[in-house]
Amino acid sequence: MAEKPFATVSEVLATSFTGPATRALVEQYGTPSIPEYKEKLAARILELEHDIRILKTCQNSTPSVNRLPPEVLSNIFIFLFWTMEREYREDHKVFWIRSTHVCRHWRAVALGCAALWTNFAFDMHGELMRTILPRSKNLPLSVTLKCDGATDVEALEAVLSQTTRLRCVELSPRIHPKPTQSATWFHIPRSNKRYGPVSLTAALESMGPSAPLLTTLSVSYTNFKVDESLPEGFLEVGAPALKYLKLDNFDLHWSRIPFSSTLETLHLGGAFTACPEFPAMLETLRGLPRLERLTLRAMLPDLEFDSLPGVRPVTFKKLEYLSLEDSGPAVGNFLGGIRVPKTIFIDIQFIGVEEWAQPDDSCVKRIKELWVDDPLDWTKDDIYSLQVSLRDDRNHLEFRFGGVPETLDWRYQLDPDEVHPHLTVSFPRYSHGSPNLTFLTHAQTYFDFTMLTTLHFIEDSRLAYNPLFENTFARLPNIQVISFVGCDMSGFWHIMDNDAACNAGAEPSEPSPGAMPPAAVVPFFPALQVIEMSRETFNKKRIDDIIRVLNKRPSGHRLGTLQIYDCINLDETDVARIMEGIPGIWINWDDVVTKKEVNMFDELYRNRAAFGF
What pTM did the predictor assign? Predict the structure, then answer.
């Protein structure tokens, strides 16, 4: 039998599907010029890979989802963009771009949809800003960047130079996720460059004189930048559509601020190199008839309004929110120059270390006069609720007025858990005297406290140790609820324990001739029905004292409810003992049992003003 000859390379590797060009190369296997043969193979491989890519692209384009009309696909991209803009955290908002990588068709549609490339947001790097700016064509632009030491200012200049297309410009600082580290970023600048300061002056200088589409302009820094300011001639032609303007924490030149009669929100904070005269400031504000929110921080004039003959106060007919931060005298002077609606919410933050223990009540008096010209049927004279708190080492007072007309919406109603206080006042961290108590003393002169129904103490009960507390509040006829959250109640219990009306002895079964009838015995807080305690620490002695003090209240003035939430060292047995010890009381307890070892010295410190209680 004849032996079968050995197969050639072509016979082994080639098939019926092998193309002629490939078969010819296979048949040349073993030719003498190996380098030349390898070059031909490499070239042929590239040709085939190119063909494969084309075929795969055609294959990917066959599903119906990849053949959506451009106008439909563009709307889907835009919907996805705004959904992520609204619902995702800032560093994930740009992830919508990944959806354009599905196929060439999707990418081509996205690149041709100019509306997708009009927003420069979060921490967009310079290369991306330069890339997408041409894609936006001539559509309006929005710039909402978190700026830091790594911001590409030159790329930002290129965007802001399209001033006539700008619709929104918000340049704010990147805040370190751990504030304690942001204060020390300069010690390790390489690792914290993204949280370092940035100069925006050059970027603002790139803007043209007119911004006809601009509705929002916000430029702010983390800390005050004395070397940053608005450029000379900034938007000097104007921004006729501007509604929101915020300039904060850098040196402001009043004459360079682009005020517009269309403004609805104005927030200015920082020192002035050229501070305006009080009359000039008032005339500028008089030209803002649509203003709804006004914030002025550390920039109020010192000149007394009463010393300006012939100057009328500015009346803000649409103002809903007023926030002022400055020294006591400066705030008082400014309040004398304006009039606001009764529906306004006011937030005042006093700064500086001025001595407040002086008989100057002009600031409180001018608060009372702010809405004197408003014809709304609301006296806005009686205080319904007062909250005393300590936040960020600042004393806060929150006032809510009674008699709110039913025609006003829910924001003005009197549920402290749901609405913003009508008047909020905070005081310097470190100041001489007790400015909060001085302010409170003046407040009771100009406002009616007799309708006060609720008192709240949050993280601060020092007022309960001051004679002002007993003199001002203990005899008020309508206080029904007093709550303490995370603060020492010893001063309050001391006042209750030393109430003369509660220490007159047991009521006799038959009144003796000439004795005072029981109905005339009026204890402190005569209308008190509810005491709320939260984040308090209990022990046996404290429970015994609470039972003893509350049992001393005369009939007709007994406490109805004791609310206890999130407290320490209190369990079912303790609650049962209180209920048994105070007949008729109802205890609303959250059933949370938290045991904690209490340091004796901490307990002594907490009771430092208990006067032996």
Answer: 0.82
